[in-house]
Amino acid sequence: MLMKTIRIKALNQENFAPFGEVIEATEQCESYFINEGNCRRYHNLAKVEAKGENAKAIISIFRAKPISLPFELKMMERHPFGSQSFMPLSPSQFLVIVAKNENGKPASLQAFLANIGQGVNIDINVWHAPLCALKMETDFFVVDRDGAENNLETYDFENPYRIEK
Amino acid sequence: MLMKTIRIKALNQENFAPFGEVIEATEQCESYFINEGNCRRYHNLAKVEAKGENAKAIISIFRAKPISLPFELKMMERHPFGSQSFMPLSPSQFLVIVAKNENGKPASLQAFLANIGQGVNIDINVWHAPLCALKMETDFFVVDRDGAENNLETYDFENPYRIEK
After folding, report:
1. ipTM value
2. Regarding beta strands A127-128 and B71-78, do their DSSP bridges make them parallel or antiparallel, or are they unpaired?
3. A40, A46, A141: residue with CB nearest B58
4. Where are the beta strands (DSSP E) in chain A?
5. Could you tell me what percent of chain A has a pLDDT over 90?
6. Which tens digit of pLDDT belongs to each residue from A116-163?
7. Which of A117, A153, B69, B73 has the most CB atoms around its CB within 10 Å?
8. Where are the alpha helices (DSSP H) in chain A?
9. What are the b/e assignments for A77-108, b being 16+ CB within 10 Å?
């Protein structure tokens, strides 16, 4: 069986830009102090998209079991009506696998290791793997879209990808 | 100086309902399994409101210094164009102080201790105190609203409130 291998890279704003936004508080972010200097606001790290009939941005928690590496990726998904953000609620790393779209299929896959303190906002209609926690069961704060239309499209690979360090 | 005292109560869905939503993954939430059973989605724990011209829900991180108790509360604020959610990014408690509105002023204040695993979504235009971390500097994941109109109204108390355990 032909299996392509994808090597995991460290996540940063620059390499993730084609797919969405990295959510993290850094010195490079726009930030300012509020509440009489008691709080620093790292402002507008990501924009939430919610399109379609009766569309609404909603907050959920995803409790994800960990995957182990190397990992066989058999499918990807995308959400045509909304962005989807993931942020761990404990200091945890996780894996973000995304792809370009070519003729309605995921192509040129990339796998990123989100470090402690990093989350991601995946742009509307960007192919991505299901949430991949690492090492331990992890709760994620998720902002995505609720609305009338079906917001989930999936694609099953003929040959799975092997994701490794 | 006349100072009213507000005693801190444990936060739960029921007592916070007049002010917004508690964001937490519990057995009472609507939840279902996704990703072939590897992930449990605690669904739609809170709705994001973003109103006004060019309104958009945005994601920010607030890095808040801790307050110490007892605490003197001198002002409150509200956001007429959007909800605002706060979720700690580490296992941390924090304080949520909210109030009813009476004649455009905060009244009948209540102080809630958000336990580890709990966040809040404060409804549009609900009076609340600035973010109160406890014990240590804490990063919070914040979903609120960006847009054309001024979304901040503040109210300074003639006599501060004393918030205590």
Report:
1. 0.96
2. unpaired
3. A46
4. 5-10, 20-23, 31-34, 39-47, 56-64, 66-67, 71-78, 84-88, 94-102, 105-114, 119-122, 127-128, 132-134, 138-146, 153-164
5. 97
6. 999 999 999 999 999 999 999 999 999 999 999 999 999 999 999 999
7. B73
8. 13-16
9. bbbebbbbbbbbbbebbbbbbbbeeeeeebee
| Beta carbons of B130 and A50 less than 8 Å apart | no
Model pTM score:
0.96
For chain B, domains (ranges, CATH) are: 4-164 (2.60.120.480)
CB A16 within 8 A of CB A111: no
Q: How far is B157 from chain A (nearest CA, A)?
A: 15
Condensed to tens digits (0 to 9), the pLDDT of residues B110-137 reads 999 999 999 999 999 999 999 999 999 9
Adjacent-strand bridge partners of B3? none
Q: Which of A39, A44, A59 is nearest to A139 (CA)?
A: A59
What are B's interface residues with A at a Cβ cutoff of 8 A?
23-25, 34-36, 38-48, 50, 56-65, 67, 85, 87-91, 117, 119, 121, 130-131, 139, 141-143, 146
pLDDT above 80: residue A1: no
Average pLDDT in chain A:
96
Q: Find residue B165's DSSP bridge partners.
A: none
Interchain CB distance below 8 Å, A62 and B42: yes
Residue B50 and residue B76 in contact, taking contact as beta carbons nearer than 8 Å? no
CB contact under 8 A, B63 and A25: yes
Of the candidates B25, B36, B57, which has its C-beta nearest A139's C-beta? Answer: B25
Whether omega before A70 lies within 30 degrees of 0, making that bond cis, reads yes
Best of B61, B140, B156 to mutate (most A CBs within 10 Å, chain A): B61
* B35 vs A contacts (CB less than 8 Å): 64, 130-131
Q: Which of B157, B161, B162 is nearest to B77 (CA)?
A: B157
